[in-house]
Amino acid sequence: MGDPTWEVKEEPGRALSARLREGRTLLVSPHPDDVAYSCGGLLAAVGRPAHATLLTVFTRSAWALPKRLRRAGARVISARRREEELRYCRLRGLTGYQALGFDDASLRGYDDEAEVSSPAEADAVRGAMEDAVADAVRASGADTVLAPAAVGGHIDHLLVHGAVRGAVAGGGALALFYEDLPYAGQHELADVERMLREERGLVPYAGVDISAVVEGKVRGMYVYGSQTDDECVRETLRHARRIASGPRPWARAAGAGCTAHAERVWAAAPAVAR
Ligand SMILES: [Zn+2]
C-alpha cells in the first residue's frame, strides 16, 4: 500500500463534510479561535452538524488584541473569550461547548519567542492536560476527532496535538488534523507539507473546497473580536488560495475547475507507509 496522496477517490472533502454533518464530532481547539481560523470553512460547508462539540483546552489567557482589554487582566479577557466561543457555537450550530480551563502560554510564563520555540515535553502542564483531553475524548463518544496538526510549533498547539494522538491511539474514532492558521500561512507551503509528513508523521486525508462559504468562514473569525485582526484574516485567506490553486480532484468533481479557497486535513500515516 502506497502513501496516500491528495488524489484520493470520491471527493474526500465532500465525504468528510457528510461525515461531520451526520456523525458525532469533537472539535479540539488549543485556544478560543483556532477551530474558527483553521477549519471554519469546513464547518461552514457542513452546515448544521447533528452532534458536534467544541472542546477548548487553554481557555484562561492574559492576551488580547485591544490594549484596553489587555489591561483589564486575565479574568476579564477569559470571560470575553468564553462569550466569543459561545457565539461561534451558535453561529455554526454546534451542539456542545466544553472549556478545559487551563492557563495558556501567556499565563505560564512564555513570551512571544519562547511560546513557538520551546519543547512541549518539558512543560509542567502536560500530564494534567493530557489526562483531561483523554477524558473528554472518551466522554464525547465521537466518531471523528478534529484537532490541530501544530503547524508553527506553538507550545499549546504541540501539547494538544500530542494529547489527542495519545487519546485516540487504539480507539474507534477517526482522528484528523487541521493546518493551524494563521501560522501555516506564515511559512512556505513546501515547508509546511514536509514538516507535517516528516515531523508529525501525517499524510493528506482530504482537501475541502470552501469557495462557496469563505465569507461565512471570515464572519466566524471576526466573532473572535478580542483576537482577530485584518492581517490574520488576510494570512488565512492567502493560505486558502494557494492550496486551492494546484490541480485538485475536488475542483474537477465540482465541475467548475476553479476552486478558489480550500482547507486541508491530515491523518496519521498508516504504519505500513512510514
Ligand atoms: Zn491557538
From TrEMBL:
<dbReference type="InterPro" id="IPR024078">
    <property type="entry name" value="LmbE-like_dom_sf"/>
</dbReference>
<keyword id="KW-0862">Zinc</keyword>
<dbReference type="Pfam" id="PF02585">
    <property type="entry name" value="PIG-L"/>
</dbReference>
<dbReference type="GO" id="GO:0016137">
    <property type="term" value="P:glycoside metabolic process"/>
</dbReference>
<dbReference type="InterPro" id="IPR003737">
    <property type="entry name" value="GlcNAc_PI_deacetylase-related"/>
</dbReference>
<protein>
    <submittedName>
        <fullName>RacJ protein</fullName>
    </submittedName>
</protein>
